[in-house]
Specification:
By secondary structure, the chain is of the alpha/beta class. It has a single domain, classed as Uracil-DNA Glycosylase, subunit E, CATH 3.40.470.10. It is about 40% helix and about 15% strand. It binds uracil. Uracil binds next to loops.
Amino acid sequence: MCESRTQTVFGVGNRQADWLIVGEAPGADEDRQGEPFVGRAGKLLNPMLEAIGLKREQVFIANILKCRPPDNRDPAPAEAASCRPFLERQIALIQPRIILAVGRIAAQNLLNTDTPIGKLRGEIHFLGAARIPLVVTYHPAYLLRSPREKRKSWDDLRLARRALTAAPSAAT
Ligand code: URA
């Protein structure tokens, strides 16, 4: 993919963030600007975060893939696997208190499952040995196409906020 992409899109945001948002892969706008979620989907992600009192600058935003797949096709498992060490390192450095996986690709890759997203959302999962709480919600690009699902997504965001409040903080 490095042959067809303009630039690598590693991630953006607060490196001490409590929240890590993980999406799928850069699209055309992200590939051009070098920042995740700056296109149409990003324009919906921002108010989703604001709905639970978060500014974009407060969180860290990354993707499963760091390079744009040609024609925005779904990431192949081997591509997700090659980018995984970068995401693992991001998680280790940021040490988020909550991970929000947006969309099927992010959720299934992070949780290493092929369970449909409808069954993964609505509950708190725990990632890795550090057992970081992880909540799954719909991708904003899907919500743009299916606005009636927004309500479920707001429920997921509130669940994530509750999971963070319930989790012990590093400071205590
Ligand atoms: N969709 C994603 O999953 N990530 C982006 O960065 C942009 C769109």
